[in-house]
Write a structure and sequence with these properties.
three-stranded antiparallel beta sheet; elongated; alpha+beta; 6 helices; 3 strands
Amino acid sequence: MPTYDYICLECRKRFDVFMTYQEYGVKPVGCSHCGSVNIRRRAPRVRIMKGDEARLSQLADPSMLADIDDDPVALGKMMRKMGNELGEELPPQFDEVVDRLESGQSPDEISSAIPDWGDDGGGEGMSSSFDE
């Protein structure tokens, strides 16, 4: 049975009504809070699923990358969004690094505080990826 979303124009409260398709438009609906019939149907939110390619291409938007060179806060926000969009398990240090960036710490300061973060076994830490 479908759910229909309404808002009462008298008490301004939202409420849902369960009706069959046959009842919709025929059965009278009143506010479940105050009983008023002065109501309006609300359009429900629509969620759109994106594939990996669409999510990653959105992350590569040049406008998102414009401020990251000199702004650790912007870099942290972009990294957090990328981490959320990837939907993969990230190492525990990731959140710590992003939190530090969002608080304004530079990548060099973070690399000094967490020397093994970003180490790929070649002895290069996180700062090497930002120096290029």
